[in-house]
């Protein structure tokens, strides 16, 4: 190999390696916590009423904000969905605030009572861009566990919490359960990897600033 | 005669105060959170002030809205998990207040036949453990604030 060609090869290698060794930019984030290295999401198999199949491919090429809940949720989910809607409204009013508009994915942990259609009607009310997705309970549980979201069914009778096995549920209470769940919002990046988490409580403007900073550094 | 007049005056005065503020309770800013047209449940919030020297509790709530039933709840965050816990009562300590707000105490209106729109008025009757009932008018509005912030103006 000639000296020139060798130099070019070394130069290219150098540039390549410098890219690999690039330190993650030091971000100043107000609320979000980066997941160092990013965590690859396993493929999942859910349904969105409008789109049909909702899988890992569905979230690639976009920044997505995942929130887990259910429509019978008394308090937390409406609060979070209103907060996320406020965030989207602010982004729409000022598109330059972020590098890319995120998509909000509301996953129902209660497919027993949340059909994909009812779920989308519910989620879409808060903001027309929101995607309500759900699927087989096992699929939902798998994704929640992998993403790090906790959820549990709780039955109540006369003010007492019942700790039950599936076959012990008193007649009439089958659909009465409430679900306790994490209120954490998870950000995935256009490669479909988990990128950061936003713990409750959430502020729309803080989320926008953190999102912009994260996107800028990516 | 004078004693009779005094007693009557007192009675009248008490009656008037009762009418205005039954059992010394003031309800401030009652509101119902706006929800999707197919929402299975609605939440009502307000600030309850107890000016008396006795603790009281809400034991029941009735409403003019066509629903299945009401429930009392309290949201509490424990180890990052949001727990929404049904309550038998909502207590208001003597000389103190209890704030019903997102992320905390709230009244649930379960299975509304028709979800009211923003701006609509919902009548709520709070039943206290001392037998007193207070009827208030709550308006429907958006609400997102949770934990520690005052009521919002959306």
Could you explain the architecture of this structure?
The complex is a heterodimer of chains A (218) and B (154). Chain A is α+β, with helices and mostly antiparallel strands and 218 residues long. Chain A has one domain (28-153, 184-217): Glutaredoxin (3-Layer(aba) Sandwich), CATH 3.40.30. In chain A, 35% of the residues lie in helices and 26% in strands. Chain A has six helices and eleven strands. Chain A has helices at 3-20, 56-59, 76-93, 116-126, 137-147, 204-217; strands spanning 33-40, 45-48, 52-55, 64-69, 103-108, 131-134, 151-157, 160-162, 178-182, 185-188, 193-198. In chain A, the strands form two sheets. Chain A has an eight-stranded mixed β-sheet, with helices on both faces. In chain A, strand 4, helix 3 and strand 5 (103-108) form a beta-alpha-beta unit. Chain A starts with a helix and ends with a helix. In chain A, 39% of the residues are buried. Chain B is mainly beta and 154 residues long. Helices cover 12% and strands 48% of the residues of chain B. Chain B has one helix spanning 2-20; strands at 25-33, 41-50, 56-63, 69-78, 81-87, 90-92, 97-100, 105-110, 121-128, 133-141. In chain B, strands 1, 2, 3, 4, 5, 6, 7, 8, 9 and 10 form a ten-stranded mixed β-sheet that branches. In chain B, a hairpin with a 2-residue loop joins strand 4 (69-78) and strand 5 (81-87). The radius of gyration of chain B is 18 Å and the shape is globular. Strand 9 (178-182) of chain A pairs antiparallel with strand 5 of chain B.
């Amino acid at each position: 190999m000639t000296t020139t060609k060798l130099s070019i090869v070394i130069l290219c290698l150098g540039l390549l390696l410098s890219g690999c060794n690039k330190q993650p930019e030091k971000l100043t984030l107000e609320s979000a916590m980066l997941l160092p290295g990013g965590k690859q999401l396993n493929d999942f198999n859910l349904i969105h009423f409008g789109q049909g199949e909702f899988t890992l491919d569905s979230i690639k090429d976009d920044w997505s904000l995942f929130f887990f809940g259910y429509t019978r949720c008394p308090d937390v989910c409406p609060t979070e969905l209103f907060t996320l809607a406020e965030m989207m409204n602010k982004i729409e009013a000022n598109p330059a605030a972020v590098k890319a508009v995120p998509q909000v994915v509301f996953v129902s942990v209660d497919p027993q009572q949340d059909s994909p259609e009812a779920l989308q009607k519910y989620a879409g009310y808060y903001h027309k861009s929101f995607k309500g997705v759900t699927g087989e309970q096992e699929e939902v549980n798998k994704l929640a566990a992998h993403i790090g979201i906790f959820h549990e069914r709780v039955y109540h009778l006369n003010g007492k919490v019942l700790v039950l096995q599936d076959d012990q549920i008193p007649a009439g209470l089958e659909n009465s359960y409430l679900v306790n769940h994490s209120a954490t919002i998870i950000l995935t990046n256009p490669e479909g990897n988990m990128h950061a988490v936003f713990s409750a409580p959430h502020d729309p403007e803080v989320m926008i600033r953190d999102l912009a900073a994260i996107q800028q550094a990516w | 005669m004078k004693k009779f007049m005094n007693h009557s005056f007192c009675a009248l005065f008490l009656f008037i105060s009762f009418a205005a503020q039954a059992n010394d309770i003031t309800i401030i800013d009652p509101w119902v959170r706006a929800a999707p047209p197919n929402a299975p449940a609605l939440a009502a919030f307000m600030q309850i002030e107890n000016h008396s020297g006795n603790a009281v509790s809400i034991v029941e709530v009735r409403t003019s809205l066509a629903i299945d039933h009401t429930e009392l709840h309290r949201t509490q965050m424990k180890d990052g998990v949001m727990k929404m816990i049904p309550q038998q009562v909502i207590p208001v300590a003597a000389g103190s207040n209890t704030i019903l707000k997102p992320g905390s105490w709230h009244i649930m209106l379960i299975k509304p036949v028709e979800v009211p729109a923003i701006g609509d008025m919902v009548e709520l009757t709070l039943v206290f453990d001392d037998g007193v009932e207070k009827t208030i008018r709550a308006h429907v509005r958006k609400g997102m604030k949770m934990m520690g912030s005052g009521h919002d103006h959306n």
